[in-house]
Amino acid sequence: MRSDGATCHSAHSTLGAPPPSPRTPGEASGSSDCPRAGGGGGFFARNAEEDPHPNPPPEYRERGTGIRETQPNPLPEYRARGLRSIRILHVINSFEYGGAEAMLCNLLLRCDRGRFEPSVAALIEDLTVAGPVLRAGIPVVTMGMKPGMPDPGGVARLARHIRRARPDIVHCWMDHSNLVGGIAARLASRAPVVWGVHHSDHVAGVTKRSTQLTVSACAALSHRLPARIVCCSEHGRRMYERLGFAADKLTVIPNGFDLDAFRPDPAARAAVRREIGVGPDAPLVALVARYDPLKDHATFLRAAALLSKTRPDVRFLLCGSRVDASNAALVAQIVSLRINDRCHLLGPRRDVARIFAAVDVAASSSVSEAFPLAVGEAMACGVPCVATDVGDCALMIGPTGRVVPPNDPVAMAAAWAELLGMDAAQRMALGLAARQRVRERFELGSVAERYQDLYRRLTRRHGAVGGRPRGAVRAFSGRTDYVQAGCAVS
Description:
The longest helix has 19 residues, at 444-462. α9 links the parallel β14 and β15. The chain has two domains: 7-16 and 58-256 and 444-478, Glycogen Phosphorylase B (Rossmann fold); 266-441, Rossmann fold. α4 (175-188) packs across α5, α8 crosses α13 (409-420) and α11 (373-380) packs across α14 (424-441). By secondary structure, the protein is of the alpha/beta class. The strands form four sheets. It has an eight-stranded mixed sheet, sandwiched between helices. Strands 15-14-13-16-17-18 form a six-stranded parallel sheet, with helices on both faces. Strands 2-3 form a two-stranded antiparallel ribbon. The protein has helices at 99-110, 131-135, 152-165, 175-188, 209-221, 234-242, 266-276, 297-310, 328-336, 352-357, 373-380, 393-397, 409-420, 424-441, 444-462; strands at 7-9, 37-38, 46-47, 61-62, 68-69, 86-92, 116-124, 140-145, 169-172, 193-197, 228-231, 250-252, 284-288, 315-319, 343-345, 361-364, 385-388, 402-404.
């Protein structure tokens, strides 16, 4: 049993693939390796059906003491021996559905394992979307913390893990991980700390008080603790500078998109439309987002009702966590607007690439975003977007779609009408321009390389260039004595 109280997780050959997406027999999924489900503005939060084993992973086994452990899958051997790799420890709240979790998963899977040795410490034991990372042989440990429960012991456990792991860089993701991971890193190591900012506006009445306090604490510590603060959006950088974060440490690396996984797909377009009972030429507008006040489904639905008065042929597809018939509040609003015969509620989906390939216009009605993955993924699929002017949406879309004020269903309906009023060739040209914009500015490979370049520069500056030669990599997950010591945390 590990003395630091952390739980180590790793996949082995019995770790099953994620449950299949709805599709016609013999059809390819068109989705990427990382599971998602609609929502959170995140890759995971919008691309996965409910996993029958969301947490813990299916290869867990119980021991007589109540401790759960997993069987290891050793890290792949490095080919070139004698060179040093850079050890990166990523600290994140959890592997639940969300945008930051999506980008971390993508970066881990794109990591150059010949130059970098990645591992992950998750504060909370939620490994819902960790499957692809585990199957890639990347070590994941959980700290046993509990949401909303401050626990100094959790910081101590993470500090002990950092001391044991001896990373060259500690990269924290999101506000709570920035605070907990940053403090733990300073207690245990001299490794440079990177913070990640994946929010922009903290909306009054929606953002939790605990999050506001955490952000305030991070602002005060930002001048001394992190070496760099990476924001996923220009808007987020500006907002966090206004909140008092160290301006000279703030930098921007946008979210990235996999153009192989997200692409125009005529076969998927036809298949999805058959699945939901929509004709091949019927205008179809989509909102891919979890049901959350920040996503503002109400504005989307009011815009749908307005457009339906002049374009009764238009259909509306909504998918994401809690976007289904079991959501009484959502269904009641649809019925009250008398558009229930025009709306298709699909719930969380694993095949978001297929969904976007099937629609004519993609929408984002959010009141707050940083750099929404749903918008970038739709653009990568060659679909023009209409988004609210929040976060970096206007920067992302440029001239390839339309940007409207938040909370304005009239403007959103008018923008939809304009795009749907184009002939098919015009709309296709706009969509292909959107895809090219993603290729030039936000392609996943180039984004991953920007992160890796940051790691290299920090290790040179701080005199840490990997502590061990390749071939001598110690897999944290390579032993089964990394077990849970049952602890309550934040």
